[in-house]
Design goal:
With about 140 residues, this protein is mostly beta strands. This is PIHD3 protein.
């Protein structure tokens, strides 16, 4: 199998390079902050009491991904956040996080809020899925 490329001198195609690798800097001495990924789904009474929509507690039925990042001794103005479809890139003067997301997200529709008392950045992203027998709306 020989991959065809436009330029004969290239050693790989752009499709072979993972998204977000341009942000990866192995020489950056900043430490990675603690984080957790939570999944959220919208349920109504037809889901809870009757089970009519076929949703279950698995991540396959979740619509949103919530990423909570602990940023001690950080001000809101020092946070730089870049979100792409499969990558979250967070940088502060003391911390750096390059997170390859478990599911593709809609990078245009998301929310971030900084809880200054807990020193946590909470990023909520809409999961971008293909329609299937569970996610049909």
């Amino acid at each position: 199998f020989q991959a065809k490329s436009e330029n004969k001198k290239t050693i790989w195609n752009t499709e072979e390079v993972p998204e977000g690798s341009e942000f990866d800097d192995t020489w950056d001495p900043r430490e990675q902050p603690e984080y957790e990924i939570l999944f959220k789904q919208h349920v109504g009474t037809e889901d809870v009491f009757f089970g009519m929509t076929g949703k279950d507690p698995s991540t396959a039925c979740c619509e949103d991904m919530v990423i909570k990042i602990k940023l001690p001794e950080t001000k809101y103005s020092d946070i730089m956040l870049d979100i792409q479809d499969k990558v979250l890139d967070l940088r502060t003067p003391k911390k750096k996080l390059l997170l390859h997301l478990p599911y593709p997200v809609n990078s245009k529709e998301g929310r971030a809020r900084f809880l200054s008392e807990e020193e946590i950045l909470e990023v909520t992203l809409r999961i971008s899925r293909e329609f299937d027998f569970i996610n049909f709306a």
